[in-house]
Sequence to fold (201 residues):
Amino acid sequence: MLKKISLGALLLFAGWASVRFVFPHIDNLIGRNHLPSNMVIKRIQELSELATVRMLSEVVIPVRVENKVFGQTVGVTSYLYIVRGQVLAGVDLSQIGTSNVAVFGDKIEIQLPVPRILDAKVDVSKSEVVEYHKDWLAPDISPASAQQVQQRGLAAVVKQACENEVLALANRQATFTLSQLLGLTNQKVAVKTTKPETCKY
Fold:
C-alpha cells in the first residue's frame, strides 16, 4: 500500500506580470469595446505554455524480494524506496478555435479544452532507499527489479497527483490566465472548464 508523505503544488506562469511580459503590446487592446473573436483566438493560442501546473510528490514504495527454494522462502531482501517526482498538467490553449470562442458585444465566452497530464517523472537523484534489510540467503536487487521499482514509483507519483486534483488545478490556472489577459479589455470574460473523464499518463 502506498503511503503519502508530502505534496507541494506550484502554479507556474500566472499573473499580471506574466501576461504583460508575453504581450508587451497588450496595452493597445485596452479601451476597445469589441475585441474580434479571431483576435481573441490568436491571443489565447499564444498562451499555450502559460496554462500549466507543476505538482511535486513524495511517495513511499515498499519493496520485498524473496529467494525461494522448492517453494519455501529462504531469504528476503526488503527496503523502503522514497520516490520524489513531479507531474506537469495543463490545458492546451493552442487547441482553442472558433468553436470554443463566442463574442457577444461586450462579453466573451470561452470553452476550455480538456486538461491533461503533459509530463511525469521521477527524480532519481533525490529519491532514496531507507530501512534496507537483507537476509544471508536473500537475493540481490537485479537491474530488472530496480527498473520495476522505478516504474511503480512513477505510477505512484501520477496517482497521488490525480488524487490531489492536479487536472482541476490546471483548469483553474487556465481560467485565471485567460481572465488576466482578456480582462484588460472592456469586455466581460466567462471561461467554462471541461471536466476530464479520467486522470492518467
About this structure: Residues 1-33 have pLDDT under 50 and may be disordered. The CA atoms of residues 41 and 182 lie 11 Å apart. The beta strands are 3-11, 52-69, 72-90, 101-104, 107-111, 116-122, 128-134, 188-192.
